[in-house]
Design brief:
It is a single chain. By secondary structure, the protein is mostly beta strands. The protein has one domain (3-170). The chain has one helix and nine strands; from the N terminus they run βββββββββα. The radius of gyration is 16 Å and the shape is globular. The protein starts with a strand and ends in a 10-residue tail after the last helix.
């Protein structure tokens, strides 16, 4: 499926992610179109609270199907008109309780930095309309913040065989021998 990814990291360089463990990162996948909404997000080591999952989708968990073990998709993932990406993480896989709300300004220039902010809350504000926060991200107050830097934005074209996991995850350009 065509689209694009953005990879943000707390590491000094994309190559630093290989050693040692403990760096935080967020990977956002967007669907087709230049101004598309995020289709999924995976973030790890970016919060101080425990969440049942590190993934978020532009779905109201109350409206998503129930998977094996009672797990649901959710998180109300969206990007508002200011370019802020926001999502909620659950305390349990069924989204019956919440762990926190996160925000991240979307960056498109490599080497710039922004604060990924995480607020621990059991009652994150749901979207004002629809099943995602495209209508506006809630304000995060307090919480913790980690500085992240976009390491690579990749546009997907062609079939799934073109998607090298290393390239997608760590920003390696398959046409070059160096990390970007």
């Amino acid at each position: 499926m065509p689209g694009r990814t953005a990879f943000y990291s707390t590491a000094a360089t994309a190559g630093s992610l290989l050693v040692p463990a403990g760096y935080g990162y967020a990977r956002v996948y967007y669907g087709p179109g230049s101004n598309s909404q995020p289709a999924s997000l995976f973030a790890t080591n970016v919060t101080t609270f425990n969440a049942a999952t590190s993934a978020a989708y532009p779905v109201d968990p109350a409206q998503s199907p129930v998977f094996t073990g009672g797990m649901r998709s959710g998180g109300w993932l969206g990007r508002d008109s200011t370019g802020t990406i926001c999502w909620a993480l659950p305390a349990d896989p069924a989204y019956t309780t919440y762990a926190g709300l996160l925000t991240l300004p979307e960056l498109t220039t490599l080497g710039t930095s922004a604060a990924l902010t995480a607020q621990q809350t059991t009652t994150p504000m749901p979207p004002t309309s629809g099943s995602n926060h495209a209508s506006g991200c809630p304000t995060v107050t307090g919480g913790t913040s980690k500085t992240v830097t976009p390491r690579r934005t990749v546009s997907w074209r062609g079939n799934s065989a073109d998607r090298s996991p290393v390239w997608a995850r760590f920003g390696r350009n398959p046409g070059r021998r160096s990390w970007q």
